[in-house]
Amino acid sequence: MKKILLLNGPNLNLLGVREKNIYGDQNFVSFFEELKDEFPDVDLSYFQANSEGAIIDEIHRVGFEWDGIVLNAGAYTHTSIAIADAIAAVTTPVIEVHISNVHQREEFRHHSYLSAQCKGVILGFGLNSYRLGILSLMLS
């Protein structure tokens, strides 16, 4: 059974209540329960942190033994060389995901420090971006 971590960064604990026009109205915990039902042959875990260090610690914790990480680093995508370095340091493949199409948003969101270290990037499909990230890791 594959072990995959869904790792969310800052402010994603507010899904379902913040900026519904961008992020939708479903909270992530209920969505995660749907994913566990949809992928019974995958050991899915979920972790969310608003602090950069906690995200890095979680990447380190699973990054040499698990089968994949689906990462939405939120705003840290556009600012964190430290998270990029953590991804580069581990052997577990990381799929970068975004709920919105960041290229349709503010220009500062067009650049990711993480993408070059990730196996792939999925964006703009709402919460389905996570589902697609899981599927891509299952196929590898």
UniProtKB/TrEMBL annotation:
Gene Ontology biological-process entries: amino acid biosynthetic process; aromatic amino acid family biosynthetic process; chorismate biosynthetic process; quinate catabolic process
Keywords recorded for this protein, A-Z: Amino-acid biosynthesis, Aromatic amino acid biosynthesis, Lyase
Site (Transition state stabilizer): R18
Catalytic activity: 3-dehydroquinate = 3-dehydroshikimate + H2O
Family matches, as SUPFAM superfamilies: Type II 3-dehydroquinate dehydratase
Pathway: Metabolic intermediate biosynthesis; chorismate biosynthesis; chorismate from D-erythrose 4-phosphate and phosphoenolpyruvate: step 3/7
Similarity comment: family membership: Belongs to the type-II 3-dehydroquinase family.
Record protein name field: 3-dehydroquinate dehydratase
Chain's gene name: aroQ
